[in-house]
Amino acid sequence: MTGETNIERVVNRLRATAEPSTLECYASGYDLGMQWASERATWPDLKTLAAQSREAWFKLQLGPNHSLIDFLAEEAWDCEPPAGGIKLAREPFVEGVVAGAAYIHDSVLSRLLVRP
């Protein structure tokens, strides 16, 4: 039996118990987190969010100048960015944003450490 077959079996088993809207919200957040990290994040903002992804958290607190606030206002909320910092409750969309951004952080970290 191949690894792919085993993974497919796990996917099918988990799919039977997963809430489709939860998966969609998480996936949407993950994609936006990757996009923000790839296109707009500053290194300090990305590093902070990636560090938070490795800790137990209940709310994502972003300071007033965090680049993710403007990005989410434009790409997800379709509104003007809120004044000041914000706190986002831990829910599937926000979990996805954090995970997607952390993936990009981890992917580029070793390359940032190498000087050209």
What can you see in these coordinates?
The termini are far apart. With 116 residues, the chain is mainly alpha-helical. A two-stranded antiparallel ribbon has the order 1-2. The protein has helices at residues 3-15, 20-39, 43-53, 67-77, 92-112; strands at residues 59-62, 86-89.
What is the number of E strands? 2
Shape: globular
Task: Report the span from N to C terminus.
Answer: 44 Å
List segments where confidence is low: pLDDT < 50 over at least 5 consecutive residues.
none
Question: What is the helix/strand order?
Answer: HHHEHEH
**Percent of residues in beta strands:** 5-15%
| Mean of pLDDT | 90
The helical percent reads 55-70%
Strand order of the largest sheet: 1-2
Q: How many DSSP helices?
A: 5
Quick one: biggest sheet? 2 strands, antiparallel
As a whole number of angstroms, the C-alpha radius of gyration is: 16 Å
Number of domains: 1
- Class from secondary-structure proportions: mainly alpha
